[in-house]
Amino acid sequence: MKVYNEMKLEFLSKSQNESFARSVVAAFVAQLDPTIEELAEIKTAVSEAVTNAIIHGYSCNTGNVVIVSRIIDNTVEVEIRDFGKGIADIELARQPLYTSKPELERSGMGFTVMETFMDKVEIESLPGEGTIIHMTKTIKTA
Amino acid sequence: MNIGFEHIDRLLIVKINGDIDHHSCEEIRSKIDKEITLKNPKSILFDMEQVGFMDSSGIGVLIGRYKLIANNGGKAAMTNIKPQIMRLCEICGLQKIIQIYPNKKQAIAGVKEC
């Protein structure tokens, strides 16, 4: 029988919620008994995606960020959605060191970090409608 | 966010306590820059012993401070980095511009030699 669990979290795009969001996902994933390293990787990837939603999705505005996370057997799926301005050129945004806000001292490594720490990262985005980041990672020790 | 500063000759040691993310990085940046302006150190050492989490926002802050110090001919170094944060630093190639030392004593000696 397949193991299945799901949770949904919705919060305002305030930077104070970045720590809250990654901690909630980490607590949900903890039921798979991941290693400290696996947990740190998931927390970092979630933090990158939530930060992108706040800085780039909503920019100076406030909106909602929705996280849906699922556990299917020993695989974690995390979907992070904003309803902000969207990404015009996804391939450009994925390039290491690319940042659309160089004035903010951003490293431009957010997507590279997500791609390195998770097994799979997919981006869906429509200008004017928002962005969804889908990430999956299999917990090896589960 | 509690940030401790220590000065040894013209080396500024910055001890950050807590998570480094987009939310905390503005405060970290402003406190360090204020200390640099006040004390005009030649080099900077980040002691990461009390940092349990960092994402790429932290990389931006560290590189930004490195640039400030390097523009005046100084060096930047880091020490006591937790393994999960070390991986992030490696992915971002941080060790190519900021020297990483296993402990504070070696870091102080290493930076002073430069």
Average pLDDT of chain B: 95
Q: Please state roughly what percent of the residues of chain B sit in beta strands, choosing from under 5%, 5-15%, 15-25%, 25-35%, 35-45% or over 45%.
A: 15-25%
Order of secondary-structure elements of chain B: EEHEHEHEH
Distance between the termini of chain B: 31 Å
What gap, in angstroms, lies between the N and C termini of chain A? 15 Å
Please summarize the sheet with the most strands of chain B.
Answer: 5 strands, mixed
Assign a percent range to the helix content of chain B.
Answer: 40-55%
At CATH level 3, the topology of chain B is Transcription Regulator spoIIAA
What is the CATH homology-level superfamily of chain A?
A: Histidine kinase-like ATPase, C-terminal domain
Mean pLDDT of chain A: 93
Quaternary organisation: heterodimer
**Cα gyration radius of chain B (Å):** 13 Å
State the strand order across the main sheet of chain A. 1-2-3-5-4
Helix/strand-derived category of chain B reads alpha/beta
Low-confidence stretches of chain B: none
Biggest interface and residues each: A-B, 25 and 20 residues
Q: How many domains, in number, for the residues of chain A?
A: 1
Overall geometry of chain B: globular
Overview features:
heterodimer; A: 142 residues; alpha+beta; Heat Shock Protein 90; five-stranded antiparallel sheet; B: 114 residues; alpha/beta; Transcription Regulator spoIIAA; 5 strands; 46% helix
Mind sketching the topology for me?
The complex is a heterodimer of chains A (142) and B (114).
Chain A: E1 4-12, H1 17-29, H2 36-57, E2 64-72, E3 75-82, H3 90-94, H4 110-117, E4 120-126, E5 130-138
Chain B: E1 2-8, E2 11-17, H1 22-39, E3 43-47, H2 56-70, E4 76-79, H3 83-91, E5 99-101, H4 104-113
Helix pairs in contact in B: 1-2
